[in-house]
Request: fold
Amino acid sequence: MADVNRGNRPLSPHLTIYRPQWTSISSILVRITGNALIVAALLIVWWFVAVASGPEAFATANGFITSWFGDLIMTLSVLGLWYHTLGGLRHLVWDSGRMLDVDKSEMAAQMMMVLAVLLTIFTVIAT
Reply:
């Protein structure tokens, strides 16, 4: 059997010594935005169901979605949508074997963040 006692070393990098990289943060944010978009989709479905249900249900759903909190949720959803889309495009580039170097991957992660914010601003201004 293998020797299980390997000394006093940690089995994995500890959080106090681990330095987050752009690529890891970007990957985590892509996963978070994907899950957040499910919540936004459920809100939009609620709004559509309320339209079909009648004026009272529509007034409730529309009142929530057009409130300041609903506007904040929808704006952040647009940000999440752009970020998640750019993350998917980055993965398509990676799947083709391009931009796999550390420097280029980190630059792509930084560009994703900047482009997502800019595209969100442009989308909000255009609507």
About this structure: The chain has four helices and no strands. Residues 22-126 form a domain with the 3 helical TM bundles of succinate and fumarate reductases fold (CATH 1.20.1300.10).
